[in-house]
């Protein structure tokens, strides 16, 4: 199977914060891969802007190093790299001052798609939006891309949205969540809405429960000062995991249209019930004596009294006709056994067993959607175990790994940032969050955080390299269910 590469229109993409970690790790390598594959048209330009006092050649050298480090050898073609670097320009820029803005304006071409990627702290968004307008750079067609965090609570999210809305219409604002750019996440919508096989079963009558897991093996690393002010709930649940839950639980939109899709996601968020404290487990990873990593969370954030969670598990209920009585179990954490992100839909048992020796019970059918590593889908079904000796049942997977099903194309799935940036150039907001989505998610999240802060709860310690706190196991065991094993 050969995927089609459809070039986008000619564009000027301005990366503000172009010398930072996100730009060098994701944005620039991703744009090069789109160039290599023929999706970035001749005449398109990437304009780097940051405080660093370097020139265009210095920026190109930085981009070359980023490509060599973060792009696979199969696409590191010297001729292609040189051609891509020719499309790069740089201007030193003061986000909070006046330096560089006239020079930036002189570079922007009004007759092509203009997009500005704010790869900077949200505290700078107001200054950037104000200057884009005061210098006459922005037009009614300009698109801006903003990175999370979209606030740290409902009040700050509303203030941030108001800052952006002061100069840009909602149709111009692209709030990026890289989870929505993953191939498997989009395939989830295709599996649900392009096949009659699953949608009739996609409700509480047939689905017993849903598990969403985002596990990391790393600790907070150099992000300790930021992470300790956020925690797993703000950093992962309120945005990434909320979006995954919405795609699982949403009703079919009337059309694959940006606002139609986002309207249905918003309905899910508003249908989320408040979560009682008994359905929440928080944890902090511990160090491992005598071997690496020796430090625990408290050492990594350099605060022995921190009550911020590096792990959280929740039992969530969606109060609507489709999902009444079907719980969604969410868990995410750092320093766990393996790096994995997956959604597992567990179907109910058949209402009656005709197989006496099965005892009326066997493992449930389960659809597992893997986001990382090895993106793909796996459907577990019961069959007869081969061989003589009666009807013995065994569970086997009907596996669809993209790498196997799509041949070489499946081994080279575009990075989420590549797809999302190309969607910005196309003007397609389907995979980007709308302002009211963000605010609704915080309106649900804020009381949960306020509750444990008011109680003074301390997170439960868990061993590095484990599956998380013991209480998280009990969260499901008391319902007669079990978490899936965390494995890469």
From TrEMBL:
Residues 14-187 form the Glucose-6-phosphate dehydrogenase NAD-binding domain. Keywords: Carbohydrate metabolism, Glucose metabolism, NADP, Oxidoreductase. GO terms for molecular function: glucose-6-phosphate dehydrogenase activity; NADP binding. Its EC number is 1.1.1.49. It catalyses: D-glucose 6-phosphate + NADP(+) = 6-phospho-D-glucono-1,5-lactone + NADPH + H(+). One of its GO terms (cellular component) is cytosol. Signal peptide: none annotated. Substrate binds at residues 178, 182, 216, 235, 334. Pathway: Carbohydrate degradation; pentose phosphate pathway; D-ribulose 5-phosphate from D-glucose 6-phosphate (oxidative stage): step 1/3. The active site is at 240 (proton acceptor). SUPFAM superfamilies: Glyceraldehyde-3-phosphate dehydrogenase-like, C-terminal domain (SSF55347), NAD(P)-binding Rossmann-fold domains (SSF51735). NADP(+) binds at residues 51, 148. One of its GO terms (biological process) is pentose-phosphate shunt, oxidative branch. It holds the Pfam family G6PD_C. Residues 189-484 form the Glucose-6-phosphate dehydrogenase C-terminal domain. Catalyzes the oxidation of glucose 6-phosphate to 6-phosphogluconolactone. Belongs to the glucose-6-phosphate dehydrogenase family. HAMAP family: G6PD (MF_00966). This is Glucose-6-phosphate 1-dehydrogenase. The gene is zwf.
């Amino acid at each position: 199977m050969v995927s089609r590469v459809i070039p986008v229109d000619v564009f000027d993409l301005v990366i503000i914060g172009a010398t930072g970690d996100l730009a060098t790790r994701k944005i620039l390598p991703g744009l090069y891969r789109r160039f290599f594959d023929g999706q970035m048209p001749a005449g398109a330009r990437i304009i780097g802007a940051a405080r660093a006092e370097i020139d265009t050649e210095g920026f190109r050298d930085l981009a070359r190093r980023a490509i060599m480090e973060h792009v696979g050898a199969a696409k590191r073609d010297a001729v292609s790299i040189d051609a891509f670097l020719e499309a790069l320009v740089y201007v030193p820029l003061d986000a909070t001052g006046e330096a560089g803005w006239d020079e930036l304006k002189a570079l922007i071409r009004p007759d092509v798609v203009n997009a500005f990627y704010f790869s900077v702290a949200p505290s700078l968004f107001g200054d950037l939006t104000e200057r884009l307008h005061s210098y006459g750079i922005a037009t009614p067609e300009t698109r801006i891309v903003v990175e999370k965090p979209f606030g740290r609570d409902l009040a700050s999210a509303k203030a941030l949205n108001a800052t952006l809305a002061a100069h840009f219409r909602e149709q111009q604002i692209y709030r990026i969540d890289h989870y929505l750019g993953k191939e498997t996440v989009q395939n989830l919508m295709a599996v649900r809405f392009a096949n009659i096989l699953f949608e009739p079963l996609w409700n509480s009558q047939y689905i017993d429960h849903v598990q969403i897991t985002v596990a990391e093996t790393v600790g907070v690393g150099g992000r300790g000062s930021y992470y300790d002010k956020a925690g797993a709930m703000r950093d992962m649940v309120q945005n990434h995991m909320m979006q995954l839950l919405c795609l699982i639980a949403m009703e079919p939109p009337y059309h694959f249209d940006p606002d139609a899709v986002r309207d249905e996601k918003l309905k899910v968020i508003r249908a989320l019930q408040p979560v009682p404290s008994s359905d929440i487990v928080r944890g902090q990873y511990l160090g491992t004596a005598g071997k690496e990593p020796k430090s625990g969370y408290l050492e990594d954030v350099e605060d022995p009294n921190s009550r911020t969670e590096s792990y959280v598990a929740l039992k969530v209920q969606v109060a609507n006709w489709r999902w009444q009585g079907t719980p969604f179990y969410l868990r995410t954490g750092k320093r766990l056994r393996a790096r994995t992100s997956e959604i597992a839909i567990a179907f109910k048992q058949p209402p009656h067993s005709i197989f006496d020796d099965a005892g009326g019970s066997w493992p449930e059918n389960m659809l597992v959607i893997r986001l990382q590593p090895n993106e793909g889908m796996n459907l577990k079904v019961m069959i007869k175990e081969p061989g003589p000796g009666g009807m013995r049942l065994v569970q086997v997977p009907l596996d669809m790994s993209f790498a196997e099903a799509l041949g070489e194309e499946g081994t080279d799935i575009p990075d989420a940032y590549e797809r999302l940036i190309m969607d910005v150039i196309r003007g397609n907001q389907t995979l980007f969050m709308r302002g009211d989505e963000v605010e609704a998610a915080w309106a649900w999240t804020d009381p949960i955080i306020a509750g444990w802060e008011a109680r003074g709860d301390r997170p439960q310690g868990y061993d590095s390299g484990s599956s998380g706190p013991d209480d998280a196991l009990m969260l499901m065991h008391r319902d007669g269910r079990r978490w899936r094993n965390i494995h890469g």
